[in-house]
Amino acid sequence: MKKEIKKITTHVLLQMKQKGEKISMLTAYDYTTAKILDHAGIDVLLVGDSASNVMAGHETTLPITLDQMIYHASSVVRAVNRALIVVDLPFGSYQGNSKEALNSAIRIMKESGAHAVKLEGGKEIKESVERILSAGIPVMGHLGLTPQSIYKFGTYEVRAREKVEAERILSDAELLEKTGCFAIVLEKIPAELADKVAKKILIPVIGIGAGGGVDGQVLVLHDMLGLNNEFNPRFLRRYLNLYDDIKGAVQNYIKDVKSKDFPNAKEQY
Fold first, then answer.
1. Any idea which architecture 10-238 has in CATH?
2. Is 187 a known active-site residue?
């Protein structure tokens, strides 16, 4: 008899926080890697707008479109049986217009089959969050370093070192919880502040560069697998060095083709 797979839901994540069980989260943008991650037992897959950087080669997350996010999300959804799939609403699809935010979220859910959406910001996106939630779509928040606002910040440095910004992050986290978000990502903020936020609110807090006191961790898949070797922030732990491994494999393939070693007698019909 086939073992039943327990699907991860927003409710399961809440239970994990209550039990003190840490939540694992990684980005995914395509069918093949999403299938591997799901089989490995990852809890949450984020179809991140970081696809703009790692899949398309853009300098920022800003250029990726809603159509492109739906394409990536659809590919991931087809691969996954267990993980909760969260999709970033891309820049320009929700800011300053709650009606457009709702339409964008509905398109993602209908056309990709994903389970939730993620939005960057605090009180300035409250109306958009409320509208999306009114349609029964789960929302994950994102505070701290919000890459879609990079030109406002002017830097990718750690956020909320100053008291005023730290207090704003705490109040925004409480606001997002009260509004109805099921979880929040905290990016690149001091560990002490992230720990304080995680203790203050009842919903799960997922960190990236936010220390170990939060309820879970997220990394960009391409970073943690060492597929790119240019990005080296303090918070990144590389679990593999695939850049060199893949490059070496390709060089061996080229050598075998040039020397007529591939294909050999057993590798042809």
1. Alpha-Beta Barrel (3.20)
2. yes
